[in-house]
Amino acid sequence: MAAGAFRRTAIERSDQRVAWERADQAFFAAGACHILAWVCRESYPERSIEVAAVRVAGDRQIFHVYAVWDGWTFDHSGWNREVDLLTVNAEFEGRPLERVGITVDLAGFCAEHHHRLPDRYWADPLPRARGYVDRHTPPWA
Predict the structure, then answer these.
(1) How far, in Å, CA of 5 to CA of 140, rounded?
(2) CA 18 to CA 48: how far, in whole Å?
(3) Which class for 130: exposed (0-12), middle (13-18), buried (19 or more C-beta within 10 A)?
(4) What distances in angstroms separate CA 134 from CA 6, 13, 103, 128, one per listed residue?
(5) 3-state class of 109 per DSSP?
């Protein structure tokens, strides 16, 4: 499912508690996808999981972040092929997208792209993200 289907409302953008109270899939699709991607990578240190993002072609602003391993992605929809993630998001947005490899750490990404660090959420999103990762069976299992 496209990340854009879960975009935050005006109240969810202005009130961290309201945003926090959304269902896990909505929370990790829009507003905390970057947290989920880094937690996924940290959850499997024996795998060479990278972090990538998508943006509308030609735009600077990233709108969705996900983990990638061997052609598979992990985001709010669980494990899916990267081509499928890119296709569903491009179709939803109705515009071509660009994949962006992320080479900085979480703090650097947040500073560069104006995303929240874990301590800027209403509550700590790290345990919630770890639980979400644990509920999805990776493709190598």
Answers:
(1) 28
(2) 35
(3) middle
(4) 22, 27, 25, 10
(5) helix
What is the C-alpha to C-alpha distance for residues 74 and 135, in angstroms, rounded to an integer? Answer: 12
pTM for the complete prediction?
0.94
Q: What SS3 state is found at 56? A: strand
Report strand pairing: 50-56 vs 64-69: antiparallel
Residue 19 phi, psi dihedral angles, 5° rounding:
-60, -40
CA distance 131 to 125: 10
pLDDT digits (tens, 9 = 90+) for 95-105: 999 999 999 99
pLDDT, one tens digit per residue, over 37-80 is 999 999 999 999 999 999 999 998 899 999 999 999 999 999 99
The pair of structure tokens assigned to 103 is 């080479």
Q: Residue ranges per domain, the chain?
A: 3-134
Q: Token pair for residue 71?
A: 């052609």
The answer to whether the CB of 73 falls within 8 A of the CB of 80 is yes
